[in-house]
Write a structure and sequence with these properties.
1 helix; ten-stranded antiparallel beta barrel; single chain; 149 residues
Length: 149
């Protein structure tokens, strides 16, 4: 998998607003966020840096690593965040112009969808708590590109 070609629409710096739904971790809130995606380690991984600031001033930071699975068209993603829990890898790939990644933990499942266009990035997280049949919205964000690829 050629990561430069595969991730070109996502590479760059993005800034925008998010809406986070109420959850066991925090009440519903509006947030400001920035996301940077860049190639690293001689082009073998995409590194993601994320910073979110909630209306109440609480901040979440995260560092992600995306890697193409050798001999496959899938992507694996590890996200280390300031909550400090060890990351569980999410797997997925590109479908209909969006990078869709899913992971399952002891508390349930999460689906992350990044949909980049030339100057805009839409990001959604849906969750399915353990035992639930349906996905529920958790976060939706819209960002503008600050700098290019």
């Amino acid at each position: 998998m050629d990561l430069r070609t595969t991730f070109l629409p996502l590479l760059g710096s993005w800034t925008g607003l998010e809406r986070q739904e109420a959850s066991p971790w925090a009440p519903a809130a509006g947030t400001r966020a920035s996301i940077v995606f860049r190639l690293d380690v001689a082009g073998t991984v995409v590194v993601q840096d994320y910073r979110q600031v909630r209306e109440d001033g609480v901040e979440l930071t995260a560092h992600g690593v995306l890697q193409g699975v050798p001999n496959a068209l899938t992507v694996r993603w590890w996200l280390f965040d300031s909550y400090g829990q060890p990351p569980v890898a999410a797997d997925g790939g590109w479908a209909d112009g969006a990078l869709v990644l899913e992971k399952t933990t002891a508390t349930g499942s999460a689906r992350h969808r990044f949909r980049p266009t030339a100057d805009r990035l839409d990001y959604e997280i849906e969750v399915r708590p353990g035992g639930a049949a349906d996905w529920s919205p958790f976060l939706s964000g819209r960002y503008r590109r600050v700098s290019g690829h």
